């Protein structure tokens, strides 16, 4: 009978110790979950900013190439390929504002 009482006391002490460890690990898990949520939100914001910058640097006419030419009449920026194509096909108006342009009215930009 004494042996069973001792085992019961030892088991209850072991259970209490395990409960303390479990509580400690659950608290650590919650801290890690909060940290992961914060990092995820931060990463999502950075991805959004990156995509926004990419959109701002992409030609609004073809939506493929990077902006690298400017129309000096209206100062709208497109890719040189789009402006050359418009000039060569005699569509010599700005795609945004319809300002007419000539051969000397678009110039290469070097964005870094």
Question: Can you give a write-up of this model?
Answer:
This protein is mostly helical and 112 residues long. Helices cover 58% and strands 7% of the residues. The protein has helices at 2-57, 80-88; strands spanning 69-71, 77-78, 106-108. It starts with a helix and ends with a strand.
Observed structural traits:
single chain; 112 residues; mainly alpha; three-stranded antiparallel beta sheet; 3 strands
Secondary structure layout:
Elements lengths: L1 H56 L11 E3 L5 E2 L1 H9 L17 E3 L4
Antiparallel strand pairs: 1-2, 1-3
- The average pLDDT is 94
* Total beta strand runs: 3
Radius of gyration over alpha carbons?
33 Å
The secondary structure category is: mainly alpha
Helix content: 55-70%
**Order of H and E elements:** HEEHE
Low-confidence stretches: none
Q: Report the major sheet.
A: 3 strands, antiparallel
Number of helices: 2
Shape: rod-shaped
What amount of the residues lies in strands?
Answer: 5-15%
Strand order of the largest sheet: 2-1-3
Distance between the termini: 84 Å
Brief rundown of the structure:
With 112 residues, the chain is mostly helical. It has helices spanning 2-57, 80-88, and strands at residues 69-71, 77-78, 106-108.
């Amino acid at each position: 009978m004494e042996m069973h009482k001792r085992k019961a006391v030892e088991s209850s002490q072991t259970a209490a110790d395990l409960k303390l460890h479990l509580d400690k690990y659950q608290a650590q898990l919650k801290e890690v979950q909060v940290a992961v949520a914060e990092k995820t939100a931060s990463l999502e914001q950075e991805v959004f900013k990156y995509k926004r910058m990419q959109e701002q640097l992409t030609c609004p006419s073809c939506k493929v190439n990077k902006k690298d030419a400017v129309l000096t009449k209206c100062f709208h920026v497109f890719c040189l390929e789009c402006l050359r194509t418009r000039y060569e096909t005699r569509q010599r108006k700005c795609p945004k504002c319809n300002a007419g342009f000539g051969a000397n009215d678009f110039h290469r930009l070097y964005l870094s």
